[in-house]
Amino acid sequence: MSIQARVNGERLIRALADFAAIGATPSGGVNRQALSPEDRVARRLLAERALARGFSVHQDNAANLFIRRDGTEHALPALMIGSHLDSQPTGGRFDGALGTLSAFEVLEALADAEIPTARAIEVVSFTNEEGSRFTPGCMGSMAFAGVQAVGDWQGATATDGARFEDELAATLAALPEARMRQQRAEIFAFVELHIEQGPVLERAEVPIGVVTGVQGTRWIEVTFTGEAAHAGTTPREFRKDAMAAAARAIAELQAEIMPCDPQARLTVGRFSLEPGSINVIPRQVSFTVDLRHPDSAALAEIEQRLGDTCARAGAQAGCILAIERRLDMPPARFAPALAAATEAACRRLGIASWPMTSGAFHDALFVNRVAPSAMIFVPCRDGVSHNEAEFVADDHILQGAETLLELALD
Ligand code: GLV
Ligand code: MN
Ligand code: MN
Ligand code: MN
């Protein structure tokens, strides 16, 4: 006789701790960057747990990992749930892992209760959502949605020098028991549970955010090239100081963009200079700019201003400017019907919810192009994420997982 499906909270919280131990950092965070040995260990563990429960395991050529519990109606496309297992270099325990492991808990809860579903339910863990080791982020979901192909990233090198194709091949080979999928299996819809990564839900004391869309992101790499010279002997008018150009450009961007538009976000997250000697004028400086805005036209206008500001700063310092756009994710709106279904699921469970836009990008942004998608957010302490201190209260973990299960049963 079947019983009602219930999230096993203890098991889910234990699973989160088990995965947090893979790539654990001394400060309590996680360094499990995409396609790294740690990422492979996490994928292995999930695949082993899946096979032990009798679910089937598949991967595609982007090393997206799929765990399937079959439905009774084989002709119906599956409902997909999940997120990612890769992390930032100084990431938290919940970004990505919460959605992936909660989705796996949904499968286990259905199996425990012996509840058949008409559609298959597939848990997905997308490859390289973060984009910190290999640019761009969301590689796996982009490949899944056909927005880009794996071949587009041949030749990409990681921040640690590893080659994309080598790391991808090693990751695929690490799961020989996974069946290879040559083509994307049709899906009915996708639901991704994730931590909010900002302060809105916690401040409002609302446990569930129903995500209606995602703001746009552009990643830009700026390089100023001048000339290395002696720090002590080179008069001002002879200098081609790449650092002077970069410092001026960054200061102007910080002063212009966000103060003039409260919806804009601008972050210089990576910075390098050469040759990097105390008494040598820097020859070359490169930095990355992460730009976000909910409005496409505003994002394009900010990128234009960034180009103008950098060109002025380069000319003033006698340096050559090169700008390369590394990523362009336009803002997206999720399927209103699925957002309504998420709200209704929360109402049935007696959990308060709140509609909101995501400030971070997520795999659902790309899956949304090929199937209706939705996201469920839960609060994180002090809104802190992409930080080893990231923390989610057990109650919020459970409410998120219960909402996901309720939707899966809808
Ligand atoms: C991805 O994690 C992002 O930067 O939004
Ligand atoms: Mn994430
Ligand atoms: Mn992230
Ligand atoms: Mn993200």
Question: Would you write up a description of this structure?
Answer:
This protein is an alpha/beta fold and 410 residues long. It is built from eleven helices and 17 strands. It has two domains: 9-215 and 331-409, Zn peptidases (Aminopeptidase, 3-Layer(aba) Sandwich); 216-329, Alpha-Beta Plaits. Strands 1, 2, 3, 4, 5, 6, 7, 15, 16 and 17 form a ten-stranded mixed β-sheet that branches. A hairpin with a 4-residue loop joins strand 1 and strand 2. It is globular and about 80 Å long. The mean pLDDT is 97. Bound molecules: glyoxylic acid and manganese (II) ion (3 copies). InterPro entries: Amidase_Cbmase, Bact_exopeptidase_dim_dom, Peptidase_M20, Peptidase_M20_dimer. Belongs to the peptidase M20 family. This is Zn-dependent hydrolase. GO terms for molecular function: hydrolase activity.
